[in-house]
Sequence to fold (179 residues):
Amino acid sequence: MERITEKKNLLIRDAQFRDYELFAKWEVDPEVTRFLSFDEDRSYEDVVNEAIRDSSDPTKMDLTIVDRATEKPIGRILVTRIDRHGDSLDITKLYIGDSEMRGSGCGEDVMRNLLEYFFTFMHMERVSLDYFTGNKAAQNLYEKLGFVSEGTARNATKKNGRYYDLNLMSLLRSEFFNR
Fold:
């Protein structure tokens, strides 16, 4: 088990097979998926099959957020488009699945820890992400962390047969370290 980053309250590590049962539970919870592109009928098998398919892809990282005090998984991170030549990656999914931990500020801690890891240890130049138009909490967090808007991708994702716009943002290494 590789520990990606570890701070006082949180540990971010590679996802383990036993985590996927929790992921499957969280990824049908409307409170978790409200602003994520998971269809309502997503099953445990869908989550596991996706994980198996992605596990051999060097451009992806599937990570688990763990509460250090309880050693309990509380969320998931999916990183994609890892480009070692261009030194960039995309934070594709990040959510706090544990209902008791939502709204506690741990999402901001997770993002700060991830960004430090990406820019310092992975030597990334650019980290990008997107979020559903209308997700003000995500927008406020990303702006607070220094992400810069790059525009809106219209009808960029599909959920339950309906298309949604995504707002695109990025953060450069120099912007992260100059904050």
Q: What stands out?
A: The first strand starts at residue 3 and ends at 6. Strands lie at 3-6, 10-14, 61-67, 72-83, 88-96, 126-132, 148-159, 162-172. The first helix runs from residue 19 to 26.
